[in-house]
């Protein structure tokens, strides 16, 4: 029995070595990615303990006073807690509602274009905003929505009051969402274009034989063919529902629009970097991450039950 057991172990080891040698180039390609995440994503997580301390740089992580969940309690009872939470959800959910379908629709439109030179030209134009610096993008938005900007002129032409639109809290979310769609729609469509290329042409041929027109082909062949990709991207998007970036908002907002523009990430920026409240801002950031992780797990489970498509 021992000889048989040892023989099985030797065979298993040999198979593992053969498999390792076979996929060695792929492992080597993955190594830089693994190192990146270990060094810049997992290693810094050790610093999260400052969320439970009154961190003092002179004392270090181990010498700072331990305060437990005091900072979390302070944040939840903060006067601005519900405002920034509401604003974050409002911007994020509107981005999902209007921004998430935009690259899918664009990819479906590209899929129907027969002229390759026209298709490539339009794709290049839609990709360009992604590569423009966020500072330049925000500068353009400020100029266009200023009282003398052309968007304000269009707004006043249809009966609105001529004003600096960015200084009006009621318009901030709309300006943010529309400009974000314009900036990210083309780049986001790439993954759906790739998914569309994987839909078998035979399915379209069978649909045509059955008498299906373009609209029925879209609903019964194209969309079901890319649905797993859509579901995966939606789960990932829901995993960052409170992850509204601070860069663009900081460059666009002002004290007059804090009421609708101030979000969790901008609050962390002001408290952590400007106010030097490192422990408090770390606690806010950890709270944010826990909520995002909860959303990710929840929607992944729901997706697995409903569509049998999930991240794991």
Strand content: under 5%
Strand order of the largest sheet: 1-2
SS content category: mainly alpha
The overall pLDDT, averaged over residues, is 86
Helix residue percentage: over 70%
How many H/I helical runs?
16
> Which residue ranges are poorly predicted, with pLDDT under 50 across at least 5 consecutive positions?
none
Characterise this structure.
The protein is built from 16 helices and two strands. The chain is flat, with a radius of gyration of 25 Å. A two-stranded antiparallel ribbon has the order 1-2. It is mostly helical. The protein folds into two domains: 2-42; 79-306, Orthogonal Bundle (MetI-like fold). It has helices spanning 2-22, 24-42, 60-63, 70-76, 81-99, 101-112, 116-131, 134-145, 150-157, 169-197, 201-209, 214-238, 246-252, 258-261, 264-274, 278-306, and strands spanning 53-54, 65-66. The longest helix is centred in the middle third of the chain and has 29 residues, at 169-197.
Any key phrases for this structure?
mainly alpha, 2 domains, 16 helices, 74% helix, MetI-like fold
